[in-house]
Design brief:
Structural class: alpha+beta
Shape: globular
Helix content: 25-40%
Largest sheet: 6 strands, parallel
Number of strands: 26
Strand content: 15-25%
Bound molecules: zinc ion
Radius of gyration: 29 Å
Oligomer: single chain
Number of domains: 4
CATH architecture of the largest domain: 3-Layer(aba) Sandwich
Distance between the termini: 77 Å
Number of helices: 22
Length: 650
């Protein structure tokens, strides 16, 4: 009987703002998307996974000007940070859309024109409170401050009244249509709490939306009226259709649109669950199945933000152990709809207990016994006894549930199912004690069965964890003597009995080495709460002879201080914004007991620029200044003569 073919699956992340330095929040969304994409493929669906960058708008224009390059060159330079991180995290999108791509700009202009011709876009005058930083008019419900002005609720900056000629999108016409859609598609916004939020917002009334600017040059020009550029949200949201072949590759577009799920952070829910479906209704395109608003990661119970300086650098977490433990932790710790709390202690604890102990030890014990007792060949199994049969049935049951949980985006539950099974297998091995069976030659068929059940279990586990930990799953797969990619497995065909007899097992290397928390915190400068950097020990001068080559590795440059502020809660630390001629950086210096911030602004001194960035008291330091230190006092050697900012010191 022919199987009914499954529908294609199309998953997206938001396009990330190209100016941002990628942090754990970007990593989280993209890891969820990557995991869903890998799972759906293994579950027999054709998959398309799209991510990308939002590259238009005032902030990109400003940053480019500040660096003396044009906006496109600036975007080309900084977008690489995202490419690099996805590679480091083993995230493999099918396409990376950049809003500056021709295919995107043409698609946006075409959609704008369609809506203009239909009367859903019209020209008018808009006056309102405008946040320059977010390039967004504030909604009417933002109350006036005491001084009669308004503060942007998103970024906390003062808004200003702006009046301009603009094109409006007739959002007001879609209020009832949106409410009808929410009612008939209860899964359109997930989780349910977010659906309630969206519904009550729309019930409160929708005003027409200003979707163009005359003040921003760096954007997609309005077709036929190039004094206007298309406002970032109308531009950005359409990446979901231009990235999948809208008006360019009809076969691709027909196959994958509408999207199965738009993964987003809950802060951009309104744009995705209200504006976006209204745009699509207006252009007569089908609506996505689901907008999933995931939670935020807090750091040690506090919200992460640039201003607090407690933003987690994903590289610190993957440098030591690769991407898989981080991918596992983020997906296992909380359901994707809720907020999670990140602490290094919690992270290391989970890596050690779930990965190193439960799974890693099981793999190493089982495979070592097969190597030692059966020359590394999967032994021919004797008949199953009831305990053996239970393991097989437990696997089949677990597979069914884990697949169902993955399929409904309950990734943490899928992992819980798999780990409960791993515990069962560990117990089975302990109960059946193959190391004792081995002592009696008459019990060899029994020994073979026990180890076969263990190996068959691990083969199934390797396939089921592959969406979350592709690298480690592949290693396990190969340890078991399997060839090809574990991700070529299809869950419909994955059976407990799939293991071939007589396969030569590879010698396993440790899958997940145990991490010593203390050593981890000490080695990774971004992770320590007590930073030793404030008071480096003074080595005696005659020790530590280095060669010139060693000295030449230091890149020392003249830095010019632009801004200096105290680091809150750290009496020794100052946060400095420095100019290095070619770029600006932030460094943290332990000189606050000697220097007031204003004493340093405008000064020039020497900075090591190629020192590995560190997070000190939650503030990232991208370099280190040179100072003489004696007790609590420090003395910075300033330049007396005028030297060019950025000049090399040697
Ligand atoms: Zn703002």
């Amino acid at each position: 009987m022919a199987k009914k073919s499954k529908p294609p699956f199309y998953v997206t992340t938001p396009i990330y703002y190209v100016n941002d330095v990628p942090h754990i929040g970007h990593a989280y969304t993209t890891i969820i998307a990557d995991t869903l994409a890998r799972f759906m493929k293994m579950n027999g669906r054709d998959v398309f996974f799209l991510t990308g960058t939002d590259e238009h708008g005032q902030k990109v224009e400003k940053a480019a000007t500040a660096h003396g390059v044009d906006p496109r060159a600036w975007a080309d330079k900084v977008v690489v940070r995202f490419f690099d991180l996805w590679k480091a995290l083993d995230c493999e999108p099918d396409f990376f859309i950049r809003t500056t791509m021709d295919i995107h700009e043409k698609g946006v202009q075409k959609l704008f024109k369609i809506l203009l011709d239909r009367g859903d876009i019209y020209k008018g005058e808009y006056k309102g409170w405008y946040c320059v930083s977010d390039e967004n008019f504030l909604t009417e419900d933002v109350a006036l401050d005491k001084d009669g002005t308004k503060t942007c609720p998103d970024c906390g900056r003062k808004a200003q009244v702006v009046s301009e000629e603009t094109y409006f999108f007739r959002l007001s016409a879609y209020q009832q249509k949106l409410l009808d859609h929410y009612r008939t598609h209860p899964q359109f916004v997930r989780p349910q709490s977010r659906m309630n939020e969206v519904t009550s917002f729309v019930r409160g009334g929708l005003k027409d939306l200003s979707i163009t600017r005359t003040t921003v040059k760096w954007g997609v020009p309005v077709p036929g009226d190039p004094a206007h550029t298309i406002y970032v949200w109308f531009d950005a949201l359409h990446n979901y259709v231009t990235g999948i072949g809208y008006d360019r590759d009809p076969a691709l577009f027909e196959k994958f649109w509408p999207a199965s799920v738009h993964l987003i952070g809950k802060d951009i829910l309104r744009f995705h669950a209200v504006f976006w479906p209204a745009f699509l209704m207006a252009s007569r395109l089908p609506l996505p199945e689901c907008v999933f608003g995931h939670g935020w990661w807090m750091k040690d119970e506090a919200k992460m933000s640039k201003s607090k300086g407690n933003v987690l650098d994903p590289y610190v977490l993957i440098r030591a152990m690769g991407p898989d433990p981080l991918r596992y932790f983020l997906l296992r710790e909380v359901p994707i709809g809720l907020d999670g709390n990140f602490s290094h202690e919690g992270f290391i604890h989970r890596v050690n207990s779930d990965l190193a102990n439960d799974l890693g030890n099981l793999v190493s014990r089982a495979l070592t016994m097969i190597r030692n007792y059966f020359q590394g060949k999967i032994p021919p199994p004797a008949a199953e006894n009831p305990a053996d049969a239970e393991i097989r049935k437990a696997f089949e049951e677990m597979k069914k549930w884990a697949v169902a949980q993955y399929d409904s985006y309950a990734l943490n539950k899928a992992l819980e199912e798999i780990w409960a099974f791993i515990t069962t297998v560990n117990k089975y091995l302990a109960d059946n004690a193959p190391w004792k069976l081995h002592k009696d030659p008459a019990l060899r068929p029994r020994l073979a069965r026990v180890l076969y059940q263990a190996a068959a279990s691990l083969r199934g586990v390797a396939a089921l964890i592959a969406p979350v930990m592709p690298g480690s799953a592949q290693k396990m797969w190969e340890f078991l003597g399997e060839s090809g990619s574990v991700q070529d497995v299809r869950f419909d065909d994955l059976a407990f009995a799939g293991l071939d007899i007589g396969h030569i097992l590879k010698e396993p290397t440790p899958l997940f080495p145990r991490v010593d928390l203390k050593a981890f915190l000490a080695e990774e400068p971004g992770t320590s709460k007590e930073q030793p950097m404030d008071e480096p020990k003074t080595p005696s001068v005659d020790q530590n002879i280095i060669t010139y080559d060693e000295f030449a590795k230091l890149e020392l440059r003249v830095a010019h201080v632009l801004e200096a502020v105290k680091v809150e809660g750290a009496k020794k630390l100052l946060k400095l914004k420095i100019d290095l001629g070619t770029e600006q950086r932030q460094i943290v210096a332990g000189v606050a007991e000697t220097y007031a911030p204003e004493q340093l602004v405008g000064k020039k001194f020497i900075v090591i620029v190629n020192l590995k960035p560190a997070v000190i008291r939650g503030v990232e330091s991208q370099g280190m200044l040179l100072a003489a230190v004696s007790g609590d006092k420090s003395a910075i050697p300033f330049f007396e003569a005028d030297v060019p900012t950025g000049a090399k010191v040697k």
